[in-house]
Specification:
CATH superfamily of the largest domain: DD-peptidase/beta-lactamase superfamily
Number of strands: 19
Radius of gyration: 43 Å
Largest sheet: 5 strands, mixed
CATH class of the largest domain: Alpha Beta
Helix content: 25-40%
Strand content: 15-25%
Structural class: alpha+beta
Oligomer: single chain
CATH topology of the largest domain: Beta-lactamase
Distance between the termini: 165 Å
């Protein structure tokens, strides 16, 4: 029998009872499973592990128990923020409560370029919403050196929501307010403007900043990692809105004054113009308009030349509008009486080496006629008989040489030199408004004395709640006598029939003066003005008009400024529902384009040679 090709080796057998000992010997274990540690090393390893766990447990207990408040506060600081709540700026209204300046809610968008990485489509959509160039916006996002960049300020809330809906990482917003002026240019010079932070910068917005501005509030919010508010936890402090400001302005009279002034400046190709309307009894400013103006809702129209409130900040030599004030001083001083007669001779008068001239010689005339035809010679002769102190005292009481304190910013004092320095020629020319200067607001304010029996009420741009206090400027008798003479100015034969208002008696005075520029009088530049009162039987309104450098065929105050007065006064009387005090016929209505009677040009500017600077004598030009 043959042997098998392969035969397994015989099975090894271990002695009985020795199997465990054989397997337990290290020499019989697989090398990868062999762990040869000394006993002390094993114990050390286990001890270190237990010590580490014990330290971690102790640290956890320490943080959870003893540092719990601190850690909670630190965690909240990284998720919670104290966010400001913007305060609403007070509203400015006219005397009847109609809004002139209001604050509307807007939002400001800003970005953190370090966080942001918008796609091309997001930039395109954002540029479309903001109406900007996509390349410009892309450059803002690309500048990774900055962590804060304004994208758009004072944005409409609807557009802000559209921008945030794009879900651009690193795009943030915050609430704010923007000032809005419903009347636009019409009230711009009075109200002024606010800056981008809603703080006053010009006009009443700046003058009453502390009154109008509010006090911001605060609230605790939770923000996510991109900075978006996800929850409002609590309101820490409620915002305190600013207080409303009620002005004396009548919005309808203001619009009327602005419209007529704009038309007159354009018609006469003038450089600028101003109108002031006062309540003669209360001293309230019912309207104050200037042109050229600016739109406070559009910063593109801002310019230094347009921002100036000329009726308050600019001075001019008033010309013959000063004659009634001078004559009132002479009446109170007893130099003349209402029935006094002045001989103006051939129509000229020599003082030293200077010649005072009337345009049309009138010979002998009464005091009222001297005012009616605006005779320079007549008032110059009276001036030489009147003490300088008496005239200066009346002008000073009438507010010349001091700010009117109406509540407006930028009020000027004008120029009224001490009477001790007046030379005879200066004393004479100051009687017809040369050698001194004032603002249109000061001029209108001074004329309120003729409406209140010689008392000039304190002027104000705010709505007056109580009775007005005043300063006596002249006697009641002189005031009544001058008022009657001023009424002659608007009648046939006076210098201002164009100032009449149908159905009302009107009293007023024209002024035409050369401009004093760079130390001398400009023979071709004029200031045309008119200031008057109505109804003359019981004056309630004072309207003053000034047209700067009319460049048309005419430049007399009776032809340039008086028609503006007539239209503004007529509308204001209707708005205030004041009853007529004259018949509605041709005697009270202003003449048409062709005057019904020849208008006597006023003789504001005498024929004299140019004097040294500061004498107050205008150049040789007849009016």
């Amino acid at each position: 029998m043959s042997q098998p090709a392969f035969e397994p080796p015989p099975r090894a057998t271990a002695p009985r009872g020795g199997a465990k000992r054989a397997l337990g010997r290290p020499g019989n274990m697989h090398p990868l499973l062999r762990l040869d540690l000394q006993r002390w090393r094993a114990r050390l390893t286990l001890g270190l592990l237990f010590a580490g766990f014990a330290a971690l447990s102790a640290r956890a207990v320490y943080l959870q128990v003893w540092q719990s408040e601190f850690l909670t506060d630190q965690g909240e600081k990284r998720a919670q923020r104290i966010a400001p709540i913007p305060a609403y700026r007070g509203m400015i209204t006219d005397r009847r409560g109609e809004p002139l300046a209001v604050s509307t809610p807007v939002e400001t968008l800003w970005i953190n370029p370090k966080q942001a990485n918008p796609s091309a489509s997001q930039i395109q959509a954002l540029a479309h919403i903001l109406d900007k160039n996509p390349d410009q916006i892309a450059r803002l996002f690309a500048d990774k050196r900055k962590g804060f960049v304004y994208l758009e300020r004072l944005l409409e809330p609807t557009k802000a929501e559209q921008a945030k809906a794009l879900k651009i990482v690193g795009l943030y917003s915050k609430p704010a307010y923007r000032r809005y002026y419903p009347a636009g240019e019409v009230t711009s010079h009075v109200l002024g403007i606010t800056d981008i932070e809603d703080n006053g910068q010009e006009g009443l917005e700046l003058a009453y900043q502390s009154w109008l501005t509010g006090e911001a509030g605060a609230q605790r919010v939770v923000k996510d990692r991109p900075g978006n508010v996800v929850e409002v936890l609590e309101r820490l402090k409620s915002p305190k809105p600013g207080r409303d400001l009620a002005l004396a302005l009548n919005q309808h009279i203001q619009y009327l004054a602005y419209r007529e002034l704009n038309d007159a400046v354009a018609l006469n190709n003038a450089r600028a113009g101003s109108v002031v309307v006062l309540d003669a009894r209360t001293g309230e400013i019912l309207a104050m308009a200037n042109t050229p103006g600016f739109n406070p809702n559009s910063r593109a129209t801002f310019a230094a030349e347009r921002l100036r409130n000329r009726a308050v900040t600019d001075t001019f030599e008033p010309g013959s509008t000063m004659k009634p004030l001078f004559v009132a001083a002479a009446l109170d001083a007893g130099v003349v009486r209402p029935d006094s007669v002045i001989d103006t001779g051939p129509g000229w008068f020599i003082i030293g080496d200077k010649k005072i001239t009337d345009t049309h010689p009138k010979g002998v005339m009464t005091l009222g006629q001297a005012i009616q035809v605006s005779s320079n010679v007549a008032v110059a002769k009276i001036a030489l008989e009147t003490r300088s102190e008496d005239y200066w005292r009346l002008l000073s009481r009438a507010g010349l040489g001091a700010p009117p304190k109406s509540g407006m910013l930028g009020e000027v004092s004008g120029r009224l030199r001490p009477y001790g320095t007046w030379r005879p020629i200066e004393k004479a020319t100051m009687a017809f408004g040369h050698g001194l200067s004032l603002s249109l607001l000061q001029l209108a304010h001074a004329y309120t004395a003729f409406a209140n029996n010689g008392v000039m009420p304190q002027i104000t741009v705010l709505r007056r709640e109580g009775a007005a206090t005043g300063t006596r400027v002249m006697s009641a008798a002189a005031s009544a006598q001058i008022l009657h003479m001023l009424e002659l100015v608007t009648q046939d034969g006076g210098t201002a029939p164009m100032a009449r208002v149908a159905g009302y008696r009107v009293a007023g005075k024209t002024g035409t003066a050369h401009k004093f520029i760079n130390g001398s009088y400009d023979g071709k530049a004029y200031i045309s003005s008119f200031v008057g009162l109505a109804p003359a039987s019981d004056p309630r309104l004072v309207v003053a008009v000034m047209i700067d450098e009319p460049n048309g065929r005419e430049y007399y105050g009776g032809l340039i400024a008086a028609p503006v007065f007539s239209k503004v006064m007529a509308g204001a009387l209707r708005f205030m529902a004041l009853p007529p005090d004259a018949p509605f016929d041709r005697t009270s209505a202003p003449p048409g384009e062709a005057p019904m009677v020849p208008v006597v040009p006023e003789a504001d500017v005498p024929l004299v040679s140019l004097p040294p600077v500061g004498t107050g004598v205008p150049p040789a030009r007849a009016t």
